[in-house]
Structure to design on (486 residues):
């Protein structure tokens, strides 16, 4: 007797296997009916889950929030902390434990945690790792499906999720002449990028945020004792964590501000209240982070643009804090006179063979200064505004009119259910965006807790499509081989 029709599998291709893509795959595989899903994660790195952020083998690169605030499972804040306690990593890295009891493990450890939680699903075949880079994404005729071209062959899919990694920092125009210079480091996280910098070398770091701090810590661990200068337009260094963590403080959501200025006033008033209550400023920013999506939603597009343009840099240095182990290195080097940060604008550069000459103008001054350095490291931050052109898969979708940049230069324009918005202004069926590239719609989507929640939301949207698929007939009279034909 012929077997009854079965619902065919929903084929999902996730482009990008860093934390965002890995988390979407993990939540999908844990859905109630994983047997109805075929999940392919397209990622050129040999392991899933690390991505740019958590693949670094450098011992000094640490997660920048306490382990108890990092988790793949948004409803289980202790998920990573429990794994960490039993992993043996703390015994191998006693410096991860800070004096206040918080734990800041090495970044690669978090990548290992993600990979280990994906391993059973990879072994069972529920998730397949396509170890290649996606080069093109093509929508089939009449929107019936997708083909993702990779260097390992095509991947056919019903659903495509764009979870691409952070793009490399853009090279400032004033440094374009150094692009091929041996002492210029365009990709600070490339393996052994700093290995060629001698212990007494003079180093210029462009930028003063998290990556800049990582570079100082790595140079110090490698035995560097020369002069390090960090240059950025405002010389704002990423702030640190409090000695004692507190609960989120303040209420920005009951009556959310409708303008960037109104939000700034609310923040300043809440910070003043926090000081009177003997509460640290970090607790105020923790509350802002938690209520961030609602605050972003309350702002009209022009006010969002104003917020990004005028206040983003101040938000970043308070929101994205450095691990105390790294802060201690910066403080020690600053006291020793071998590290400093200045506010200045780059003017020009020149490769002089033995050194790199950099011309800059300090903030508030008209005089141009020129100084020579043995090495220049570019840490200007991910070039999100260039992601749609620098990534070949995203570029192909852009050229096809299936995705476009958001109005704030943060990533890809999406609908509230995380579908990409095409050039016709409509959400594209079967094309989702997960992770930081969707933050133009959702606001705060750079921190790991927010990315984890967004990944779960995207997975839930995709799982909800299972019942919309047509049935499939079992091949063969008795269906013994279990093959499905759409």
């Amino acid at each position: 007797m012929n077997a009854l029709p079965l619902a065919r599998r929903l084929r999902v291709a996730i482009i990008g296997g860093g934390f965002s893509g890995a988390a979407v795959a993990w939540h999908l595989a844990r859905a109630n009916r994983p047997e109805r899903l075929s999940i392919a994660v397209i990622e050129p790195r040999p392991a899933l889950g690390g991505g740019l952020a958590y693949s670094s083998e450098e011992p000094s690169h640490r997660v920048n929030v306490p382990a108890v605030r990092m988790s793949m499972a948004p409803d289980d804040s202790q998920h990573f902390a429990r794994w960490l306690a039993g992993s043996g990593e703390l015994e191998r890295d006693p410096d991860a434990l800070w004096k206040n009891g918080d734990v800041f493990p090495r970044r690669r450890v978090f990548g290992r945690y993600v990979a280990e939680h994906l391993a059973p699903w990879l072994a069972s075949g529920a998730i397949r790792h396509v170890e290649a880079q996606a080069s093109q994404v093509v929508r089939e005729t009449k929107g019936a499906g997708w083909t993702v071209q990779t260097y390992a062959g095509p991947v056919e899919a019903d659903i495509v999720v764009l979870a691409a990694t952070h793009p490399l920092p853009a090279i400032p125009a004033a440094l374009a002449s150094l692009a091929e210079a041996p002492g210029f480091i365009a990709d600070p996280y490339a393996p052994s990028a700093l290995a060629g910098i001698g212990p007494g070398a003079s180093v210029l770091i462009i930028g003063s945020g998290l990556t800049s701090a990582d570079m100082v810590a790595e140079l110090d661990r490698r035995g560097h004792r020369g002069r390090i200068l960090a240059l950025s337009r405002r010389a704002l260094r990423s702030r640190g964590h409090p000695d004692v963590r507190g609960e989120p403080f303040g209420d920005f959501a009951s009556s959310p501000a409708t303008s960037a200025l109104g939000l700034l006033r609310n923040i300043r008033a809440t910070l003043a209240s926090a000081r009177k209550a003997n509460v640290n400023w970090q607790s105020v920013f923790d509350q802002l982070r938690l209520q961030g999506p609602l605050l972003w939603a309350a702002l009209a597009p022009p006010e969002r643009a104003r917020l990004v343009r005028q206040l983003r840099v101040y938000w970043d240095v308070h929101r994205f804090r450095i691990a105390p182990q790294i802060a201690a290195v910066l403080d020690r080097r600053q006291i020793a006179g071998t590290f400093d940060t200045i506010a200045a604008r780059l003017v020009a550069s020149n490769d002089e063979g033995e050194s790199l000459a950099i011309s800059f103008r300090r903030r508030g001054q008209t005089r141009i200064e020129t100084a020579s350095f043995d090495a220049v490291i570019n840490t200007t931050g991910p070039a999100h505004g260039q992601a749609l052109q620098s990534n070949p898969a995203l570029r192909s979708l852009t050229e096809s009119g299936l995705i476009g940049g958001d109005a704030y230069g943060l990533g890809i324009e999406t609908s509230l259910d995380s579908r990409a918005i095409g050039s016709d202004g409509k959400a594209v069926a079967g094309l989702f965006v997960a992770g930081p590239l969707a933050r133009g719609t959702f606001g705060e989507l750079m921190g790991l807790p927010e990315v984890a929640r967004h990944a779960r939301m995207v997975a839930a949207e995709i799982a909800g499509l299972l019942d919309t698929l047509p049935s499939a007939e079992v091949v063969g009279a008795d269906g013994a081989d279990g093959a499905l034909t759409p």
In short: Residues 1-6, 471-486 have pLDDT under 50 and may be disordered. Residues 301-319 form the longest helix (19 residues). The first strand starts at residue 6 and ends at 7. DSSP finds 14 helices and 19 strands in the chain.
